[in-house]
Amino acid sequence: MKIINKFFVIFLLTGLVACGSNNQESTQSEEISAEVAEQLPKVNTQKVYLREVDQNYEFTATVEPVVKNNINPTTPGRIRQIFVEVGDKVTKGQRLAQMDAVNLNNLETQIANYKRIYKRVSELYEVGGASQQELDNTKLQLTVAETNLKNLQENTLLKSPINGIVASRNYDNGDMYNGQLPILTVMQINPVILRINVSEMFFSKVKVGMPVEIKLDVYEGEIFNGKISLVYPTIEERTRTFGVEVTLNNKNAKVRPGMFARVNINFGVIDRIVVPDQAIIKQAGSGTRYVYTIVDGKAHYKPVELGKRMGAEYELISGIDNGAEVVISGQSKLADGLAVEVIQ
Fold first, then answer.
1. Angle at alpha carbon of residue 17, lines to 13 and 20, rounded to 5°
2. What range defines the domain where residue 256 resides?
3. Terminal C-alpha separation, the chain
4. Which of 247, 267, 287 is the last residue of a domain?
5. What H or E segment, with its residue span, contains residue 329?
6. Domain for residue 22, yes or no?
7. End position of a domain, from candidates 267, 294, 311
8. pLDDT (tens digit, 9 = 90+) per residue, 116-137?
C-alpha cells in the first residue's frame, strides 16, 4: 500500500506541473496575439454604392463678339477726321474715319488724263493712226489706275463693314497712323459667343443645338439661355478636351465682350459610385487619385477617376465596384496588401 501511495503522489505532482506549464503557454500565446493585434493599423471604413447623379457640368468662359473688325488703311497716313466715339452704335457702310486725300486727288487727276489719252488713241485707231498694241496699252493703263483708285478710296474714307458698336479708338484727328494699332475697333455683339473646353468623355454627347444655361458674375442670380453652335472635331492631346462654341442672343446688348461667364450643360442622369471626400488621396508627385478598399481584413490600393465634387462627396467615374468597403480614416499607415484592424 505504501508503494501504491507513493506512485499516486508522484503522478499527481507530475500532472500539476504539466497543467501549470500548459496554462503558462496559453497565456503567453494570448499575450502575443494581443500584441500583434495592437500593431495592426486601425482604420475606419464605409461601404459605398451606386447612386443616381445629375450630370450637370459648369464651364467658365469669357464673352466674345461674334465679329471683331479693326478699322485702318493698308498703308500709314495722316488721319484727317474720326467721325465716331467709343460706345457709338454703327451700321454697315457708315463712315468712320477720313484719311488724308492728297494721294486720292492726285490719282483722280491722273485717271482723268488717262481717259483723255485713251479717247484720243481710240480715235486714231479708228482711222489707222494707232496700232492695236498702242490701244491695248492705253486701255490697260486706265484699268490699272481705276483699280488703284477704288482701293485708295476704300483706304481714304474708312467705313464700317458690319452693324456693331465702337469698342476702341486709338488715335485723334490729325494723328499719323503708323500701323501699330488700329484706328478703331468695331464689334458685332448680337449675338455673342462663348468658347469652352469640354472633357473628351462627353464628346459623343455634345451636339449642335443643345440648350445651355449661362450665368454672368456681373448679373448675379440671372440666368441667360444659349445654344451650342459649334463642336470642334478634334481632341486636344495635352488636356484631353475639345472646343465648344456657345451662342447667346444679345438683342438688348446687355451682355458685353470681356464679361466672365459660367456655362452649365446638363447631360442627364447616370448611376455612379459616390464616395466621401476623406476617402480620396492624391498621390504625391502626380495627379493620380486613389482610395484603399478592405477585403478579407487587408487593404488594397485602388486608383480612381474622379467626376464632380458634390459637397462632401465625390462622384467616381471608375476605380471601384458597387458595395466596396473604403477606408475613410487611417490611410497614412497603409500599403497595398497590408492587414488592418477595422474599427467603427
1. 140
2. 58-64+188-267
3. 65
4. 267
5. strand 325-329
6. no
7. 267
8. 888 888 888 788 878 888 888 8
